[in-house]
Amino acid sequence: MDGDIELRVDGRRRRLRVDTRTTLLDALRDGVGATAPKKGCDHGQCGACTVLLDGRRVITCLTLAVAHDGAEVVTAEGLAHRDRLHPVQEAFLERDALQCGFCTPGQVCSAVGVLDEVAAGHPSAVTADLTGPVELTDDEIRERMSGNLCRCGAYVNIVDAVRDGAR
Amino acid sequence: MPFDYRRAPDPESAVAAATGWAGVAFLAGGTNLVDHLKLGLTSPEVLVDITGLPLDEVDELPDGGLRIGATVRNADLAAHPVVRRDYPVLARALLSGASGQIRNLATTGGNLLQRTRCVYFQDLSTPCNKREPGTGCSAIGGYTRHHAILGASAHCVATHPSDMAVAMAALDAQVAVLGTAGRRVVPLVELHRLPGDEPHRDTVLAPSDLITAVDLPPLPPGTRSLYRKVRDRASFAFALVSVAAVLRVEDGVVEDVRIALGGVAHKPWRARRAEDVLRREPADEEAFRRAIDAELAGAAPLEGNGFKVPLTRNTVVSALRELSREER
Question: Cα–Cα–Cα angle for B309, B313, B314, nearest 5°?
Answer without folding.
Answer: 120
